[in-house]
Design goal:
- The chain is mainly alpha-helical and 197 residues long.
- It folds into two domains: 135 residues, no CATH class; 43 residues.
- It has six helices and no strands.
- The longest helix is centred in the C-terminal third of the chain and has 39 residues.
Length: 197
Amino acid sequence: MEPVAGSLLAPLLLAGAAFSNHLTDSYGATANYWAIGLHISCWIAQFVGHGIFEGRAPALLDNLVQAFFLAPFFVWMEILFLFGYRPGLQSRIAKAVEKEVDKFHQSKLHGNGRATNGKIIRTIASLALSLAVYKYAHGDPDKQPLLTRWLHYYDSMQEDFKRKTYMNIKFVEEAGKDRHLFETAPFVGHMELKFPE
């Protein structure tokens, strides 16, 4: 959609992924606990903020793709607009947002309470679903979260892969030694092989 802005964002995303890997390597499951806790706290704050200050449900309930992919990119575009990036695009987006805000205010004036109640119910249902997923993730007898169990499984697969790779390297080295021994051995002449009688 916006190749220049996306190219500017890519190094930040890669740096964030590298830093997340560093935290996981350094602190193990503790880093995951903090990340999941912060993530859940921010989602709750977003629901509360939308309910109190905007009086409407978050975009998450209308469109998951918009909430997870387009909204962060929209925030990135806002940051770029602060530095003077593409003022024409900024004015077009501002006009489109203004139209949407006017439509929202008009729907509130005409008493569109049913839709608001439906969104509130969906918000409560999504919070209940989030709690159910959280409980399921902690349903292991060892009391390890689901993500931690997945990471341990991935680590065990890596260890198995390292062991197999090490064995393959050893087999190749032995085959190389045998070949070298065969090629450098002195020629002893003709050898007769007989079957035992």
